[in-house]
Design brief:
The structure holds 2 protein chains of 2 kinds. Chain A contains 7 helices and 9 strands, in the order βββαββαααβαβαββα. Chain A is of the alpha/beta class. Chain A has a domain at 90-154. In chain A, helix 6 (196-202) packs antiparallel against helix 7 (220-234). The longest helix of chain A is centred in the C-terminal third of the chain and has 16 residues, at 169-184. By secondary structure, chain B is an all-alpha fold. Chain B has one domain (2-244). Helix content of chain B is 76%, strand content 0%. Chain B is globular and about 55 Å long. The chains are: A alpha/beta, B mainly alpha. Chains A and B meet through strand 1, strand 5 and helix 2 of A and helix 1, helix 4 and helix 11 of B.
């Protein structure tokens, strides 16, 4: 890949967790030697079963936590934003306040963030609920707010974790449209899902992670096929 | 964030903002009933004495204990992006301080109506409050870090503030200790006892507190705060790793 074409390069990323009292420390290897490269402006897919380490990988890519070993390099990527299933919100605050906090933590100025709030309200389709505390929201509403906040913010890298699997048909369609738009745009997107069909629809290249290690990588069609065969066999 | 939290807290409770004042008053009432009425341990102006101890102490203890859990309430958002983690203890202290301003103003006004006059010593009040605030800030920043380095400390922090409540002369007067050496020892090595005593010196006895002590205390608290701040900045991702794992 030419020097200016790549956005992310991960080389042998590993992550270990320690647990238990000090006299009986257990080590869990969550990620084992993960390597891949993502092109600028690409929508890159990561698939795998629940608990395979997808979310931990996303957290490392988002800079939330640091890998235990291996190297991760970014090319011209300033701001990163991670969208997960609508968690990460304070339940007692209104949707508006949550979105504002979220944007400001992402580095937006307060004035700019306030201007974006109307777009977020529109996109999420929450209407009057936008002003109510998050504890009154359903799971679908949370993920709609999370997704709307994430795509409205101007980030260079957007990391999406299974968000599309929640929400009603109409919102799913809207979200997929935005994702397809981003496919042709400047923004680099990493899309994580246990659903190979969704990944296939949106991404050109993908990796499949099983028990913390890469099982297959390359063109999404081929990776998705292998993944589906594997899932069928274990059933 | 602190302002938003205040707003949301107030919206949940029926009496809303009145709780800012009711809560400290309830504490004072309980202490007053036990010590003045049941044990007859008070004196002429015991109520004023008690308020000037308990109300600043509550500012300290509530901040520290809330800060000790602050990181866990931020777990969700911490899993989404990297940002300075010190905003959790800071917003806790800021929230408690907003309430404290209201409570202090009411307290000072009440003292004034009780016939306690303003004196020159009152000029030291801002320095005293600043000193108190810097102690609370550095203490809260440390307390919040416990999640990361020693999960088990939570119970110890609760016990610690309880111990300080007994050891800082809230319902008894440090100056009534017969042995002057012990008295000096407490006032020197328990900054909280010194601060509470200083509130009383200024507002009840119209006397200036030991200014050099106040300045040194403020300075040391701010140095400690700077150090802990540095740890937060260096360890941001490690903090998230510990909170999330």
């Amino acid at each position: 890949m030419a020097e200016r074409d790549w956005a992310i390069s991960a080389d042998k990323l590993s992550l270990t967790f320690n647990a238990g009292p000090i006299w009986d420390r257990q080590q869990y290897q969550v990620l084992k030697q993960i390597s891949f490269a993502v092109k600028k402006g690409e929508t890159f897919g990561v698939m795998g079963r629940n608990g395979c380490g997808k979310s931990s990988l996303l957290r490392i890519l988002a800079g939330v936590i640091k890998q235990s070993s291996g190297s991760l390099r970014f090319n011209n990527i300033g701001s990163r934003s991670l969208l997960t299933l609508g968690l990460g919100f304070n339940n007692d605050l209104s949707g508006r306040d949550n979105a504002l906090l979220s944007l400001m933590l992402q580095g937006e100025e307060k004035a700019e963030a306030k201007e974006m709030l109307e777009d977020i309200k529109d996109f999420s389709g929450l209407g009057e609920q936008f002003e109510l505390p998050m504890r009154t929201y359903s799971l679908g509403m949370r993920s709609r707010l999370g997704f709307a906040t994430g795509v409205t913010a101007n980030t260079d890298l957007l990391l999406i974790d299974e968000t599309l699997s929640v929400g009603d048909q109409h919102f799913k369609y809207k979200a997929e449209q935005v994702m397809l738009e981003k496919l042709n745009g400047e923004q680099t997107v990493i899309f994580v899902s246990h659903n190979s069909r969704q990944v296939n629809k949106l991404c050109e290249h993908a990796i499949w992670i099983e028990q913390g290690a890469i099982e297959a990588s390359g063109e999404t069609k081929l990776v998705a096929k292998e993944y589906r065969c594997f899932m069928r066999d274990i059933k | 964030m602190a302002v938003m939290r205040l707003k949301s807290e107030a919206s949940k409770l029926v009496l809303s903002y009145l709780w800012w004042v009711i809560e400290p008053l309830l504490y004072v009432t309980v202490f007053y009933i036990v010590f003045e009425k049941l044990l007859s341990r008070g004196g002429g102006d015991f109520l004023v004495f008690l308020m000037l101890g308990k109300i600043p102490f509550l500012w300290f203890s509530k901040s520290i204990n809330t800060a000790a859990n602050a990181m866990l309430t931020g777990k969700g958002i911490m899993g989404q992006r990297d940002f300075p983690k010190h905003i959790f203890p800071y917003s806790v202290v800021l929230e408690a301080s907003y309430k404290q301003v209201v409570v202090f103003l009411l307290l000072f006004f009440w003292l004034f109506t009780q016939g306690y006059s303003l004196s020159q010593a009152c000029l030291w009040l801002p320095l005293l409050i600043l000193s108190n605030l810097s102690l609370i800030l550095s203490g809260s920043m440390l307390a919040a870090l416990r999640v990361v380095y020693l999960q088990d400390l939570r119970a110890v922090i609760g016990m610690g503030t309880l111990f300080l409540m007994f050891a800082s002369g809230i319902f008894w007067d440090v100056r009534s200790i017969a042995d002057p050496e012990v008295q000096q020892l407490i006032l020197t090595f328990n900054p909280l006892a010194f601060l509470l005593d200083a509130y009383r010196q200024i507002l009840m006895h119209q006397t200036s507190p030991d200014i050099s002590y106040l300045l040194v205390l403020t300075f040391l608290s701010l140095v400690l705060l700077g150090l802990v701040h540095w740890v937060y900045a260096r360890q941001s991702q490690y903090i998230a790793y510990k909170v999330l794992s």
